[in-house]
Amino acid sequence: MIDSVEIADSKGTRQLKSDSFPLALGGAGAQIEIGDVAAGKTAAWIGQTDDELFVQVAQSGEPVHCNGSPVTVSQWLQDGDVIRIASTRVTFRRGAPPRLEVEQVAGEDVTEPPLIAGRASWETAATGMTVRPVEFTPSRVEPAAERQRRIRPVTVLIAVLILALAGFAALIFSVKSVKIVVEPAPDRLVFEGSSLGWEVSGRHLLRPGSYVLVAEKTGYRRLEEPLEITRASGQTYSFALVRLPGTLTIDAGSVSGATVFVNGEEVGATPIEPLELEPGEHVVRVESDRHDPFESVVTIEGGGSEQSLTVTLVPRYAAIGFRSTPAGARVSVDGRSIGTTPLTQDLLAGSHDYEMNLPGHQSHRGSVVVVANQPQELPSVQLRLSDAKLLLRSEPSEASVTVGEDYRGRTPLELPLAPGRTHEIRLTRPSHDAASQQVRLEPGETRELTIVLSPRQGEVEVRVTPGDAEVFVNGESQGQGSRVLTLTALPQQIEVRREGFEAYSVHVTPRPGFPQTFDATLKTTEQRKAEGMKPFVRSPQGHKMVLVRGGLFTTGAPRREPGRRANEVRREVKLVRAYYISTTEVTNEQFHEFMNSHRSGRVDQHNLEIGHHPVVRVTWADAARFCNWLSKKEGLTPVYLETGGDVLATDPLGKGYRLPTEAEWVRAARYPDGSTELKYPWGQSLPVPENAGNYADLSAGDLVSPTLDDYNDQFPATAPAHSFRPNALGLFNMGGNVAEWVHDYYSATAPGGGKVETDPVGPKSGSTHVIRGSSWMDASVSELRLSYRENGTRPRADVGFRIARYAE
After folding, report:
1. Does this model's pTM top 0.90?
2. Does domain 6-104 have CATH number 2.60.200?
3. What is the architecture of the domain spanning 246-310?
4. How confident is the model at residue 129 (pLDDT cuts 50, 70, 90)?
């Protein structure tokens, strides 16, 4: 029996008392003895390996308890473990360094003494009670020699136990405590290549060496990792299990051929086999030409799980119905044939152009705006019979062609005509008799027709002074001296030339049956300047152009004038250079000589194409080109140049034909007598007097609004170019009929800063041009005034032009 408890460590042997003190083991492999050390009765050892402590019982026979349980083999110590030996309780505290807390508990659970052979009785230390042995019959005593030869079984058992304990102790001291961390915790963890791998308090005991760590868990990939255990202390290894992928089934319904993308990468087209995807979020996108894109974020659980995604593709098309009378017309949409009427076709959302074609009928074109999922049935199209074609020629050519009342151009000409009707074809040409013929064509028919026009001629007598001057007709010499010329009744240019004299030139149209006489008296330059300029001249087309001399005058309108607009700034202008301006606006017939293809068109049922009415729906650029054409016909240098598609004026302005400048137009319209400033074309006040001009009157009530309630000029739209009273200069329709393009670029403010402007031609550049004068569509106080000015770029049904050029 142990009567006292002592401790022996690297600091020596000490008597245990109630106390707390650090352990001093002295390094790995050291140990502490606990018991009656001085008497050689060690009850237990506390040992250390890899920084871990354990307790192991000795063979003293004294029982050792740990946390109330008998200790029979080596046992690791944890923080707070309580070791009980006899009446002493030792508590282990982990720390740096570890400590032992000693407490004497002699009055608790005293161990009963063992029976001692040969004593009749003995008293217990705790109670003093006497214990007497009972009588017994001893067993047979074997002879001593026999006892020597025989090995007792208990001795063998003890020897085996000692060897086992020694082997176990050797094993304990040779293994390493290794911490293995696997996330998430596996269902199975083994070390291939080791028979140990015991787990104690979350750490594994392994001998140094090479192993294969195998970890398995449902829903994760099997982990097999090589593991090298060294002799180092505190080894820790961490591993992560990889979750198995999942399966995603994508259902796009009846839509096939849609492209499927996962995380931006194309993986196939619908219908598509199930996809194996790694756990986590994936962006699934499905695209189809005929549907809106579908996109969804799918979280794959993984671990072999099966998931599904239903894709709803919203159509981007609708059913469109096409019908025609008669049926069977071929339908093309955006240039692609899709079938014949009646037809219903799916079209993608958006705007589409379509065309219907049927042999013998005119094509029909249209457009449709398709809204997804909204079917449409387009109105049935009544297909008209195809136009017939008349290939019309004349002898001579360049004859004007009129069908009914509509001017259609000049020969040779391809005329589309409505089939199944009789058309009156009329040809006219200056100096020739008019000719008419009726034509009726069948649908799709093409016919050629040549009409011969009978020429007309007249006599022109030219009397020249001096007598040896040479006579030219259209640039060709006719000889020297006076003579009678027989010429076709077309505009002819007659010139008389002699060196040292200014040439004489006149444009004349011979009149059959009416002889004409011209006196061509040539004068020197000095004589011509002294006599002054001609009061009027004619253009190569026969436009009468009156001379307008310059002067000082004011443009714009006073601030308080009723109807005044902000762009009617008052400014002083001085014209030094005299100029000619045409008495009328250019007519349809005159403009068609320059541009056959032009059409003034109609307004409602009113024809604007009549030959002697002013041409309309012309651009400023086309008016400028017409002036250049006239200049070339007369041998003058054109005023306008074409550069990169733009029409620009020369600087300074040349002597050719051009549009009047805004200042020239104001001089001719507001100061026709050279001094009096007119407010309106007819005078100074309203109302509009009878026969004053062509304005928005009662006859135009169905076309425009407002109109003059008490005025009727009998012309709902345009009127003849020579209609109504001319002004003091002999100019027709400076107000009313059609407004007029002028030369200048438009500016709302006046240049010059209050100074007098001399021969102004407008700004150097701009985006629009000035339009002056009222038209048949105007009736307001503001528009009827001669100071009213506007601007534009596009052709209009009420805008034409007249021509001008310098007089020098």
Report:
1. no
2. yes
3. Sandwich (2.60)
4. very low
